[in-house]
Design a protein that fits this description.
196 residues, flat, mainly alpha, three-stranded antiparallel beta sheet
């Protein structure tokens, strides 16, 4: 999902094709700056807006529809391999020092089981700290790109990284409403609902 801003006003939010078409329509008439942000990272995204509406739509296909079409034939034609792909198990390589391998071999269960247990324990002990830091980073990337010159930017940033979202919102009170709302959305807990 992407969100586009024309200067300090939210222009569009949604799938890449929808946002790209909205940006193309505005760029022809607008003298202002248009920036597009990735809702997952808060980073600025460059969109290729060349060509007709059909060409832009084809360039940015709806990912859910594409995945559904691509997965259905694969499941019926591909022979079932080893592992548990239906559970989302993904095989990747990791590199450990010999002392780490020695420790893993001394544990009950396979190395994969031990690593999964350790990761689950670390996630429980984390209490959402890593997710909160990622959210603060998303919001800061957005604000750095669009609001770095606004009054109180440094104070708002300090409140954000202190985890005080109430103070963060207060520091942005004199800012344009769309910028404040999107920054708060990025800084808060992730949800699958669209921004309204």
């Amino acid at each position: 999902m992407l969100t586009a801003f024309s200067d300090d006003l939210r222009l569009a939010s949604g799938p890449a094709s929808q946002v790209a078409l909205a940006v193309k329509a505005v760029e022809a008439d607008s003298q202002g700056t248009v920036l597009v942000f990735d809702d997952q990272t808060g980073a600025v995204v460059d969109l290729d807006l060349r060509g007709s509406v059909a060409e832009i739509t084809a360039r940015f296909p709806d990912s859910e529809a594409t995945e559904t079409v691509a997965e259905a034939p694969e499941e019926t034609t591909r022979p079932r391999g080893r592992g548990r792909p239906r559970l989302g198990v993904v095989a990747r390589e990791i590199t450990l020092l010999p002392r780490h391998w020695d420790w893993l071999e001394a544990q009950a269960g396979s190395a994969s089981q031990v690593l999964r247990r350790l990761i689950d324990e670390a996630r429980r002990a984390d209490s959402g700290q890593a997710e909160a830091r990622a959210a603060w980073g998303r919001s800061y990337r957005f604000l750095s790109a669009i609001a770095g010159d606004l009054p109180g930017f440094e104070d708002a940033s300090r409140a954000l990284f202190a985890g005080d979202l109430d103070a963060f919102g207060d520091r942005m009170d004199r800012w344009p409403g769309d910028i404040k709302a999107y920054a708060l959305r990025l800084a808060g807990p992730r949800s699958e609902t669209d921004w309204t």
